[in-house]
């Protein structure tokens, strides 16, 4: 039997369930990676915990106060998926309790909260801390990353990374915490979706030098779910135009797009990198497709390779099949466990210092919008 790493989950909502489901099919992996065992759960809402208690007989601790969970000596690591206003306090306490942490984005509601988390991490170098980001683990995106790293693209012309949703197009959708500034944060859609657009670019070393932000607040009120209307003050859509230094002393533009009002988009994550010698793109709308250009003398053809089920960490699924969101979640979790156990992998999760850069960028983006100017990122 594989070695086990005993986990507590704080926040048993949408993402807490995704982790638990991934842990429940660890046998899907065809690799010798310790297995996460969920032994504790914590949520203030008892209803949120019912599904866990029904499906996981490994649960020994069922708590409403996360301090109780952190006091358990047999919990090695924690997955924390709670609203953004709680990130700093919860993450700092988890790290100071000596538990490894997979935290959720945006890793602090704002730059001050992120700095508090970074301070706790510096105090505890023995604890492995990462931020969740699953989309780079699609096999076609991994192929895209390999092309970038190989230098096949030549001089980079432009990078476009985006993450778009459309569920807010339904004006009757009641407001939830993700649309409330005091809980989701001043960054709005950028805080909620931005880290997904930044993980690959930052890891490729594309560090924004400056930003000019276009932010839109379009739907300003929503049903409050109790028969009334509530103000909805978060940013709906954002386009960040940045300049990035290249290796030859030049610069290229990078566009990071996050939208809650993108007609027809359902969790659409995409990345395109255009280069002088070749260009590549991947979109979760076409999960099996890796797109690249082939040069025909003066012209370029976009070609689609059906990549098949060839994930970074091997699984039992045949390569003739297709890959999906829950597979990406499983790969991300396997990658996190590898990072805890120092098992080498080609592409690791978002690191705390990358979340720090994300906060610098998004804080500068707000400043850019309010002051109507390009803001340097230091
Ligand atoms: N990686 C991704 O693709 C992805 C997708 C969605 C959300 N997220 C992130 O995950 C986090 C959680 O989002 P979600 O969609 O799961 O939210 P959710 O609202 O579905 O779940 C949050 C849970 O936290 C619980 N909670 C609130 N206060 C608590 C407290 N004091 N103690 C313990 N539990 C408490 C709530 O009762 C709820 O069950 C956020 O940071 C969000 O940005 C990530």
Q: Would you give an account of this structure?
A:
- The chain has 378 residues and is α/β, with parallel strands linked by helices.
- It is 31% helix and 27% strand.
- The protein contains ten helices and 17 strands.
- Strand 1, helix 1 and strand 2 form a beta-alpha-beta unit.
- The chain is globular, with a radius of gyration of 21 Å.
- The structure holds nicotinamide-adenine-dinucleotide (NAD).
What's the CATH topology label of the largest domain?
Answer: Dihydrodipicolinate Reductase, domain 2
Number of domains: 2
Q: In what range is the share of β-strand residues?
A: 25-35%
Low-pLDDT segments = none
Cross-sheet strand order for the largest sheet: 16-15-14-13-7-12-11-8-17
Task: Profile the largest sheet.
Answer: 9 strands, mixed
- Averaged pLDDT, please? 97
Distance N to C terminus: 49 Å
The SS-based structural class is alpha/beta
Compact description:
By secondary structure, the chain is an alpha/beta fold. The protein has ten helices and 17 strands.
Topology readout:
Blueprint: E1 4-10, H1 14-24, E2 35-42, H2 46-55, E3 61-63, H3 66-70, E4 77-80, H4 87-96, E5 100-103, H5 111-123, E6 129-131, H6 139-150, E7 156-164, H7 181-184, H8 189-203, E8 208-216, E9 221-223, E10 229-231, E11 237-245, E12 251-259, E13 268-275, E14 280-283, E15 289-296, E16 299-306, H9 325-340, H10 352-371, E17 375-376
Parallel strand pairs: 1-2, 1-4, 2-3, 4-5, 5-6, 7-12
Antiparallel strand pairs: 7-13, 8-11, 8-17, 9-10, 11-12, 13-14, 14-15, 15-16
Helix pairs in contact: 1-9, 4-5, 5-10, 8-10
This protein binds nicotinamide-adenine-dinucleotide.
């Amino acid at each position: 039997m594989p070695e086990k790493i005993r986990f507590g989950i704080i926040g048993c909502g949408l993402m807490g369930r995704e982790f638990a489901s991934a842990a429940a099919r660890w046998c899907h992996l065809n690799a010798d990676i310790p297995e996460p065992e969920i032994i504790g759960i914590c949520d203030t809402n008892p209803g949120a915990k019912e599904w866990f208690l029904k499906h996981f007989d490994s649960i020994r601790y069922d708590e409403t106060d996360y301090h109780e969970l952190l006091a358990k000596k047999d919990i090695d690591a924690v997955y924390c998926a709670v609203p953004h206003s709680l990130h700093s306090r919860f993450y700092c306490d988890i790290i100071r309790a000596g538990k490894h942490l997979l935290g959720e984005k945006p890793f602090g509601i704002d730059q001050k909260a992120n700095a508090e988390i970074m301070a706790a991490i510096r105090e505890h170098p023995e604890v492995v801390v990462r931020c969740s980001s699953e989309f780079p683990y699609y096999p076609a995106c991994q192929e895209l990353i390999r092309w970038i790293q190989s230098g096949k693209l030549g001089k980079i012309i432009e990078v476009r990374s985006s993450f778009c949703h459309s569920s807010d197009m339904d004006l009757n959708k009641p407001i939830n915490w993700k649309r409330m500034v005091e809980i989701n944060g001043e960054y709005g859609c950028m805080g909620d979706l931005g880290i997904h657009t930044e993980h690959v670019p930052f890891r490729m070393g594309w560090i924004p030098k400056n930003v000019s932000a276009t932010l839109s607040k379009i739907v300003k009120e929503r049903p409050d779910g109790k028969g009334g209307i509530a103000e909805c003050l978060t940013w709906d859509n954002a386009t960040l135009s940045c300049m990035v230094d290249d290796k030859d002393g030049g610069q290229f533009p990078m566009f990071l797009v996050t939208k809650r009002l993108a007609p027809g988009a359902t969790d659409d994550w995409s990345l395109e990198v255009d280069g002088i010698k070749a260009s590549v793109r991947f979109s979760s709308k076409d999960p099996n497709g890796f797109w690249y250009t082939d040069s025909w003398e003066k012209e370029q053809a976009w070609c689609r390779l059906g990549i098949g089920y060839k994930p970074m960490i091997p699984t039992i699924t045949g390569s003739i099949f297709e890959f999906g969101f829950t597979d990406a979640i499983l790969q991300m979790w396997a990658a996190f466990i590898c990072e805890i156990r120092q098992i080498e992998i080609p592409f690791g999760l978002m690191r705390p210092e990358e979340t720090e850069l994300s906060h610098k960028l998004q804080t500068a983006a707000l400043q850019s919008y309010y002051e109507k100017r390009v803001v340097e990122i230091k």
